[in-house]
């Protein structure tokens, strides 16, 4: 997902995230809509900015985490997982036991994120009501399945991170949306294919298929 979405104008905080789940992660069936993905742009420099998504985290936080992750010699998939954990931990969004601090996240959205009231309502709904519950639904099982690729890194924050990026595009307010054909195609796709871990996994499979074509 991150690869596809960055090519249609994802903001820097989401550009740093690479999808990290593997084909064996999905236990059920994805939506049929996930099987038909819009074409990936060939040139990032010519990509349209589809949605003016507010910055969620400061550049300082993102750069610090990128530097920490880049120093590691671990595989890219594990680095992606560690990046998401690093960002969320620096903002104190994750408790010591690895679970999300929902009260702190709600306060952060209200007091720190610089966005309109419409966006703040959308962010809170997406993050707290949709993506975190999705990512936490079977967190022990997900962690067990991904242990070979992730090592000791908890993959649940990265799942919530990527889920949120997709849904921000899918639910982007009309005043912040660029109505180009590629953007509209991606908005429709993400609206129909971001409801479960199985959907997100299929999205990753489709992206990899296009890259190999």
From TrEMBL:
Domain named OBP47-like: which ranges?
A: 56-189
**Which Pfam families would you find in this protein's record?**
OBP47_like (PF22651)
Give the highest taxon in the source lineage: Eukaryota
Q: Tell me which GO cellular component terms the UniProt record holds.
A: extracellular region
- Give the subcellular location: Secreted
Question: Does this entry carry the keyword Transport?
Answer: yes
> Where does the signal sequence lie?
1-28
Q: Which family does it belong to?
A: Belongs to the PBP/GOBP family.
Q: What is this protein called?
A: OBP47-like domain-containing protein
């Amino acid at each position: 997902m991150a690869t596809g979405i960055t090519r249609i104008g994802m903001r820097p905080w989401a550009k740093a995230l690479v999808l990290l789940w593997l084909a064996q992660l999905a236990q059920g069936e994805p939506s049929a809509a996930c099987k038909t993905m819009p074409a990936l742009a060939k040139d990032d420099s010519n990509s349209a900015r589809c949605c003016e998504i507010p910055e969620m985290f400061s550049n300082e936080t993102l750069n610090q985490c990128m530097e920490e992750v880049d120093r590691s010699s671990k595989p890219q998939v594990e680095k992606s997982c560690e990046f998401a954990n690093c960002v969320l931990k620096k903002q104190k969004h994750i408790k010591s036991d690895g679970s999300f601090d929902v009260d702190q996240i709600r306060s952060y959205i209200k007091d720190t994120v610089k966005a309109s009231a419409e966006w703040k309502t959308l962010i809170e709904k997406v993050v707290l009501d949709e993506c975190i519950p999705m990512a936490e639904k079977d967190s022990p099982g997900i962690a067990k399945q991904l242990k070979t690729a992730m090592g000791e890194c908890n993959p649940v924050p990265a799942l919530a991170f990527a889920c949120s990026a997709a849904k921000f595009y899918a639910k982007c307010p009309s005043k912040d949306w660029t109505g180009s054909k590629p953007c509209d195609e991606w908005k429709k796709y993400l609206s129909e294919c971001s409801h479960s871990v199985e959907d997100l996994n299929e999205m990753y499979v489709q992206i990899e298929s296009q890259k190999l074509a």
